[in-house]
Amino acid sequence: AQKVTQAQTEISVVEKEDVTLDCVYETRDTTYYLFWYKQPPSGELVFLIRRNSFDEQNEISGRYSWNFQKSTSSFNFTITASQVVDSAVYFCALSLYNFNKFYFGSGTKLNVKP
Amino acid sequence: KAGVTQTPRYLIKTRGQQVTLSCSPISGHRSVSWYQQTPGQGLQFLFEYFSETQRNKGNFPGRFSGRQFSNSRSEMNVSTLELGDSALYLCASSWGAGEGKTQYFGPGTRLLVL
């Protein structure tokens, strides 16, 4: 069975602080894909990043960076110098090779205060 | 390119009624998936359609059904509504099926059942 765990329910930081959102996944499949989405109050899930199970290279995109470690089944997301506009719920998701079905974590609500 | 569109955006129904939600995918995308989001259960997969065929179905009762048309537009129907069906229903589209295709989400339809 597949499972995604986001243990942090809610995080509050002050603007310009760095923040890391944790994601731990479970699957026995050797080929899988991991995603991060952002959900602002409007409700739409906004795609941030996709990683496949063969690519453990970490990625940086502007203020965002992702740390994928197969050894610990984790795919963590860091926002550097957070801004108020980063306030949203962030979801980690897992999909398998032959399916479009996403297994979502429960989400982490990030509050960035000015 | 226009994003995923969903209609209606808001809906209020009473118990026992039925409802039909519509989703238009991004142009060129042939796969459409539906998700239900509630505070208690989080984001749960309903079903996925590709080329008018249901490829995958989540663990929901038969009251939940869907279909996809030849232009890739999709509808989902919920019959005999229950209070617990109140949720945000999200539609997502992707270019293909499987292989970790990124899914792009619409703004959702907020359904309230009274």
Structure description:
- The complex is a heterodimer of chains A (114) and B (114).
- Chain A has 114 residues and is an all-beta fold.
- Chain A is 0% helix and 54% strand.
- In chain A, the strands form 3 sheets. In chain A, strands 2, 5, 6, 10, 11 and 12 form a 6-stranded mixed β-sheet that branches. A 4-stranded antiparallel β-sheet of chain A has the order 3-9-8-7, with no helix packed on it.
- In chain A, a hairpin with a 2-residue loop joins strand 7 and strand 8.
- Chain A is globular.
- Chain A starts with a strand and ends with a strand.
- The relative contact order of chain B is 0.33.
- Chain B has strands at residues 5-7, 10-13, 19-24, 31-38, 42-50, 53-57, 64-68, 74-78, 87-94, 104-105, 109-113.
- Helix content of chain B is 0%, strand content 53%.
- Chain A binds chain B through residues 32-33, 35, 37, 42-47, 50, 52, 91, 95, 97-107, and chain B through 31, 33, 35, 42-45, 48, 50, 55-56, 58, 88, 90, 92, 94, 97-108, 110.
